[in-house]
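The following record pairs a protein chain with its ligand, flavin-adenine dinucleotide.
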Amino acid sequence: MIIKKEQEQILNYLEDASNLKGGKAESVFIPENEEEVVEIVRECSAKKLPLTISAGGTGVVGGRIPFGGAVLSTERLNKVIEINDRGKYAILQAGVVIDDFLKELSERCLFYPPFPTERSAFIGGNVATNASGEYSFKFGCTRRYVRRIKVVLSSGVVVEIRRGEVIARHGFLRIPSTDIEFKIPDYRMPDIMKNSAGYYSSADMDLIDLFIGSEGTLGIITEVEVNVIEQLPDIFFCAVFFESSQDTFSIVRELKAKKDILDLLCLEYFDSNSLYYLKEFYPRVPDAAEGCILVAARMSSDGSLDMWDELLSKYNPVDNWFGDSEKHKEELYGFRHKLPEIVNDIIRKNNRPKISTDIAVPEAKFWQMNDFYCERLSSSGLKHVIFGHIGECHLHVNILPENEEELERAKELYFEFAGKGIALGGTVSGEHGIGKRKHHFLKMMYGEEGIKEMGRIKNAIDRNCILGIGNIFTKE
Ligand SMILES: Cc1cc2nc3c(=O)[nH]c(=O)nc-3n(C[C@H](O)[C@H](O)[C@H](O)COP(=O)(O)OP(=O)(O)OC[C@H]3O[C@@H](n4cnc5c(N)ncnc54)[C@H](O)[C@@H]3O)c2cc1C
């Protein structure tokens, strides 16, 4: 095991992609195997020393940032234990980097459907946040593909949880081989495609679902078994630009209705402000464009391309950028990923935090939510962009305040958006989680009592309350 104590050696573990400042830790433990993980948690439990689990550090809500205590980094638990071509599953240690995993799968003509967007993340980080990815419009999030996990609890007990083996009974769940039993919360998950807000809860829930998305607050995931599928057939990509947002929304409606016929994997959206900022880097963005969608679809032999052409001629876009090679794909996804980079640069220049929403709502309420965003943002006069996973009813609103007064108004707007999203049956976090940044929204979603119910589970499982302090729950 490596132990780092020199401050300059541990600086890297005090940050992630959230830009949250003030992280501090007295040491970083880097175990090489499960026995060492057990040793570390036992030591921290005995001393009641907070322990924060660190993976790829790509989280955007400060989840892996410690505010005291020690850090356990899973970076050396990085073995792909097995890829089973016949059974279509893979067993990985928690610290396997997603990019490495995808490459190994590709050599065997296999694919991991959650296809997480940020490939330097670890599989353990993805499970702990229930991450989604480029094709979650078709395949859904990480949760759906996790069939077994191994978790080290803060007592040092190692638990193996296989999907389907431990199901809630009469409102209670028990962790096998332990005396831990707890009541499942009364609140229920919203009926939407993506949700990473707080602990999972449903009447007949599976124990594995509690740990998925628990943001390092319940145990250290050391091993993960996931389903994989055969490599995808050829895919085409297309960015389509429209003269009006109404035309953009009309085609989105039709594409959602024809999702299966067209075999769509991804349906993303950019508003006119997004295109304005992107044009500086992509001068080909048409001047007249007021909205854009980016799609990926399987190229099937039964005429999906013809159907696509028909659809485009019906909606008469001002331009479209079509691609069917890996190079084209990279260019188009480069276009997609450029926007958050541009926004982050603006924010840095303005020296104000980014106000960035992660709200997802049910399909039936999506257009109501979208109208609400547009009305409130245009009357606010605040600089902003709206973009993201329109296929999954999960748009990101980024507000770019230029001074303190604008920052305050941007925060108020975020509260309004969260309230509206919840009222429409949605979630305050579609994919990023709560971490150390979004507690107040979680409280809006599940109420004081819902947070207490989660707290009772946390206390039952992590009895010394040392894991992931500050994540999901406030410190007090
Ligand atoms: C450019 C960019 C694009 C992104 N796009 C997306 C996107 O499209 N969809 C999406 O969902 N996210 C996205 N993210 C966010 C991020 O990639 C995910 O949240 C990811 O799952 C974090 O994984 P990580 O390995 O980096 O974890 P970290 O950031 O290191 O940790 C995340 C959380 O998981 C906990 N944790 C980590 N490992 C374990 C473990 N083994 N056991 C228990 N708890 C653990 C940590 O304590 C922390 O709370 C993006 C991030 C960036 C920077």
